[in-house]
Amino acid sequence: MDSIDLVFAGAAEQARMLAGGAITAPALTELYLERIARLDPELRAYRIVLVDAARRAAAEAQERLDAGERAPLLGVPIAIKDDTDVAGQLTTFGSNAAGPAPTRDAEVITRLREAGAVILGKTAVPEMMLWPFTESVAFGATHNPWDVARTPGGSSGGSAAAVAAGLAPFALGSDGAGSIRIPATWCGLYGLKPQRGRVPTAPHEGGWNGLTVNGPITRTVEDAALFLDVTTTKSELPAPEGGFVRAASHPPGRLRIALSTNIPPIGAAYRDAEQRAAVHQAGALLRDLGHQVVLREIDYPRTSIYAQVLPRMLRGLSDDVRALPHPERLDSRTRGLARVGRLISDDRMARIRAGEAELAARVNGIFDDVDVVITPGCATGPSRVGAYRRLGGLATLALVGARVPYQSVLNATGQPAAVLPWGLDRQGLPLSIQLVGRPFDEATLLSLSAEIEADRPWAQRRPSIS
Questions:
Q1: Domains of the chain
Q2: Which reaction does it catalyse (predicted)?
Q3: Closest to 212 measured CA to CA, from 127, 93, 109, 309
Q4: Taking the CA of residue 119 as centre, how many other CA atoms within 13 Å lie in the half-sphere pointing to its CB?
């Protein structure tokens, strides 16, 4: 396997190669560090690259491998979104307002280290993780490896750009209103928003009033399943017997699948024919694979975005901004939206959170008759870098929301959803479909995703900057 094939092989395959002695951890880490040094000045996927720490961790991993020790990710590199604490490194949240550096790892980082992962660095995010584009006053713009004039999406845009360009085999992301699924879509990757509570978010628990979860951005379905197996919270949450990798490796059986292309009530939204056509193409494939496929729309409440998602997001932003040591350093657009969030009282937020059960029951009513729902990944492709630079907060929210209407309701309901690549659009940019599962049922999503992946493999599809 040559070096290019190796960096695009994915985390699970690299773990097998490391365990089998086909490669060494230091050599694999150096391969990524060399690529980052060469390609990232143009992409700006990383906010900081932890060169010395990565080399030390890789050397330690190799010592453990040579001693016969085995762990699921022993020696495998990973990129970390810069909203997650890595001990000794500033968690910037895309701003100059944060600090000081945490002295302890976030819980998800602890679990990744215990599994043997080597942290390459922290990836770029928009300020306070607000936007589905990754640009900030503090750190500039991150570019899409498929077209550097376009955004990779956000807020996990740096993580997605790094994986797409072969600057990391997989990455940690977070998703509060589509922030894993949007950049995974626009960078041609697999992105999984797990069930709320599945992957730990401590010490930043309850982000955006329960909207935010941690999850993987990967090249393969198996990589996402492996991430869940090593990070999953050991709790009362239902989980598949034998783990998520085992679930992904088993055929899903004959499923009842609904195709839904209606847009949640959001005001103006794009209705790109190619995005919607991908859903129907997926339906045709799934019929050929033996599944029962029907056309059935999700019953979105008329006010779901404005009554549930936006208030929780804006109040969460306000709380996050108040916790910063230097909020005056934030962009005026961020500060303006934080002021809006301060208008939402504790009592009102309690009433909004109490209404989640009614929203979830209505959205999930479709699962009385089907097992999985498929929607478009996004309503259209990525915007150009700098497209919203001169706009205020509310205007930016309205315009970006028109591109990404399918994600945020599922953050309010808390159930799992995944996007998987579905070819390229007429401009040569990635398309995706979104698979929505029942609460707690990542196993079915992974199994069905793996079946589609086997029929329409995407992992070796590479962007121009790779």
A1: 3-455 (3.90.1300.10)
A2: a monocarboxylic acid amide + H2O = a monocarboxylate + NH4(+)
A3: 309
A4: 25
Q: Which residues contact 226 (CB under 8 A, 6 or more apart)?
A: 11, 12, 15, 72, 73, 244, 245
Based on the residue annotation, tell me whether 179 is a catalytic residue of this protein.
Answer: yes
Q: Is 464 a catalytic residue?
A: no
N residues, the chain: 466
Catalytic residue among 81, 193, 408, 447: 81
Task: Give the pair of three-digit tokens for residue 23.
Answer: 């490669």
**Catalytic residue status for 81:** yes
Tokens describing residue 292? 């029962």
CA dist 144 and 465 (Å) reads 9
CA–CA gap between residue 79 and residue 12 (Å, rounded):
15
Residue 147's DSSP bridge partners are 144
Separation of alpha carbons 168 and 80, rounded Å: 10
The catalytic residue among 155, 159, 304, 447 is 155
| The token pair that represents 445 in the structure block | 């999503």
Asked if 122 and 86 count as a contact pair (C-beta separation under 8 A), the reply is yes
Residue 302: burial class (beta carbons within 10 Å; 0-12, 13-18, 19+): exposed
Specify whether the CB–CB gap between 145 and 161 falls below 8 A.
yes
The first and second tokens of residue 418, run together, are: 């995944």
Rounded CA-CA distance 203/85 in Å is: 8
Residue among 193, 137, 169, 135 at smallest CA distance from 382: 135
Phi/psi at 20 (nearest 5 deg)? -85, -5
Question: Does residue 339 sit in helix, strand or coil?
Answer: helix
Nearest to 419 by CA among 384, 385, 446, 459: 446
- Number of helices (H), then strands (E), belonging to the chain: the values are 19, 13
Q: How many CB atoms lie within 10 A of CB 7?
A: 24
The residue annotated as part of the active site, out of 159, 174, 179, 432, is 179
Per-residue pLDDT of the chain (466 residues; tens, 9 = 90+): 899 999 999 999 999 999 999 999 999 999 999 999 999 999 999 999 999 999 999 999 999 999 999 999 999 999 999 999 999 999 999 999 999 999 999 999 999 999 999 999 999 999 999 999 999 999 999 999 999 999 999 999 999 999 999 999 999 999 999 999 999 999 999 999 999 999 999 999 999 999 999 999 999 999 999 999 999 977 768 889 999 999 999 999 999 999 999 999 887 899 999 999 999 999 999 999 999 999 999 999 988 788 899 999 999 999 999 999 999 999 999 999 999 999 999 999 999 999 999 999 999 999 999 999 999 999 999 999 999 999 999 999 999 999 999 999 999 999 999 999 999 999 999 999 999 999 999 999 999 999 999 999 999 899 988 8
